[in-house]
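User: Okay, second chain of the day. Same drill as before: sequence in, structure tokens out.
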Amino acid sequence: MDTWIVAAILIGGIIVIFGGLAIIVAKFYRKVDQGQALIINKMKDEPEVTFTGGVVYPIIHRAEIIDISVKRIDIDRRGKNGLICKDYLRADINVNFFVRINPIKEKVLEVASTIGCKRASDLAALDELFNAKFSEALKTAGKQFEFAALFDKRDDFREKVKEVIGEDLNGFVLEDVAIDYLEQTDLKFLNVNDTNDAQGIEKIVRITKEKQVIEARLSNEAEAQIANEDVKKWERIKLAERQKSEIDENTTQAKEEARIKREREVSTKELTKEKDIELQRKNDEAEMLAAEQAKMRKAEAALKDREKALLIKEEENMAEKLRLQKKREELAIVLDLQKQTKAEEESSKLKRAEGIKIEAEETNKTIIEREQAERTKVSTIITAQAEAEELRIKEEEKAEAAKKVAEIESQMASFDLKKTEIETESQKMRAEAQAFEKERLADAQAKEFAATEMAKVQVERDREDLRKIKISNDDLELNIVDRKGNVDAENLKRQGAAKAENIRAEGVAKAANIQDEGSAQAELLRSQGLAEADVEERNVNIAERANEIEANRIRQIKFAEAEGISKLADAQKLMDSISQEREEFRLKLDKQTEIALAKIAVRRDIAKSQAGVLAEAFKATDIKIIGGDGDFFDRFVHAASIGQALDATMDNSQTLQAISHDYVEGEGNLIKEVGNILSSPTLQASNLRDLSLTALLASLSSEASGEQKKLLQKLLAKATDLEKGK
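Assistant: Same drill. Structure tokens below.
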């Protein structure tokens, strides 16, 4: 009995124990979902990993769940951060990396120990962990492929990325790589200052330009083919039209042959008449040409006579100028001798200078008379030439020659007037120079002679200007006549052609109208109309030819005159070296004379102004002025300026007014007081050398007494105020 009880108790206890254990296991058993693993940290050295579940006891066990499913890590590189390829192009790319933990105990424990269960299960933490590694793998792999190869060899690129990433992922394994987006980076995101981007830009521009060229070439070829098809179409149309016109021509060929036969006969008759008329015209032209040549020979002879007269005139002028040059040199020598003589010979110099002056005036008068005679001679030659022209040309050309002579005479009169004004001005300048520069007689005589030479030089310049004006007028007249002849000839030609065309049209119209009445009468009328038209056209040609001959004649005459004048100018330019030296001397003398006259005028104005000032200043004064030197005025003005400055200083300085008040009012004696101060035994040379004015006055005041001390103290106070005012 007792045995059964004990046995029952034991069995009940065992059941209770096992039941309790079952309840405990059921209570603390943790299951794991698929894609997860349970890590239980027990009392052992190594944790236990289970992929299905396990019992986790409180306090003595610690359990962690780690996610071992596949996770996607997104790497996106765009814009400035785009992937750089082998050919330096940037690619906007988006790549998805799929990673997971192998369901192996060792791998799970490695991830748990290196990364941690919580971080290994957090996608953001994994992205932060592997982003840099995956980005570097993309850069390394992308640098080995050109941009176009990324499209063509995506599998190779993916395998290359896997190869670069390798197996070292801290327990993770790279499941797959997927390229989700791949495009070329926009050109605006490339940096031109980056060497890689610069090479990429260069390639992009080169490829796009080549594509544009190819597209343009294909477009042009297409347009050319279209144009060729259009041309072929129009050629077929034209061919059909041409065939149609040939058929029409064959139907009217018989009529046309008859008409051509009739016109050929008429043309033969007209050609015979034209030959006769042309022969007569050539004879008339030969006679007119011979007459024109005779006129030209006469004109050339007259021109040569004129050139010869001008050359003689120029030679006489040159001889006269050389004589004047020699006299001027002699005068220069005389003036040099005059400057070297002594003061007592001034009277004889004055007489000699007066004689030279009279001789120069007589020479000037002789030159003026000779120039008037030459001018009369030139006028006579021009009048004779005008008379010869009146005998050779028509009534209209007589009027033109008379007008030309009147213009030349007007120019000569203007020249005389200008010369008279120059001589008057020269005489006025000489008179003023003599009145103002009596004490400088030699310089005045030289300047007067230079002024006379300036007048002569101005005369020569006026002559040269007159000659140039004449040449310009001749050229202008020639152009006017030439243009007038061409215009008249063109007008006559147009009128004759129009008239001939009208007559010819009228003849043809009449012939066509009466052709049904009789072909003979029609041909006669037509021949008459053509003959009248030919005669009118021939008359127009003759008039045109006559105008051309006349224009050529006038042109040749004017060209001959211009050429003669040009040769004369060239002959003057090609004179010997003496003339060239003379011209250089003349120009230099002109310049020196102008400068000297300007100085004289300035000095004269200054002297007048000084005299006016002195006259106004000395009206109410009794001053004796000794000497005529111009420095007196400067010294006088300087002294007056100093006086005015002193007066202004005294008026504006209160200190000087206070110091000088006693002396101005008569209450003190400046000379006596200064004498007392200087006679003081305490004033030594060393005091004046070593002390300032204030120190000196203080030293004297300390040793003085009585009125002298008061005076020194007053001066010391004023000096102290002056120093403070500084």
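The mean pLDDT is 69.

User: Thanks, on to the next one.
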